[in-house]
Amino acid sequence: MAMALPLAYASSVVHPFEAGRLSFSTKATKHKKQIYQFRKVTKVLAYYGLTNPPYKLDALEPYMSRRTLELHWGNIHRGYVDSLNKQLPNSPFYGCTMEELIKTTFNNGNPLPEYNNAAEVWNHDFFWESMQPNGGRLPWGGVLDQIEKDFGSFSNFRDEFVHSAMKLFGSGWVWLVLKTNERRLSIVRTSNALCPLVWGDIPIISLDMWEHAYYLDYKDDVSKYVNNFMDHLISWHSATARMVRAEAFVNLGEPKIPVA
Amino acid sequence: MALRTLFTKKALTRASGLGPLAAAAGDRGLGSGLGQARALTAATLPDLPYDYGALEPAISGDIMRLHHQKHHQAYVTNYNNALEQLEAAVSKGDNPAVVRLQGAIKFNGGGPFCCGFNKFLSHQPLDLLEQPQACKSKCKISILITYRTSFFLYFCFIKCWEGGGEPPHSALGWAIDTDFGSLEALVQKMNAEGAALQGSGWVWLALDKGSKKLSVETTANQDPLVTKGLHMVPLLGIDVWEHAYYLQYKNVRPDYLKNIWDVINWKYASEVYEKETA
Question: What task does this protein carry out (chain A) (predicted)?
Answer without folding.
Answer: Destroys radicals which are normally produced within the cells and which are toxic to biological systems.
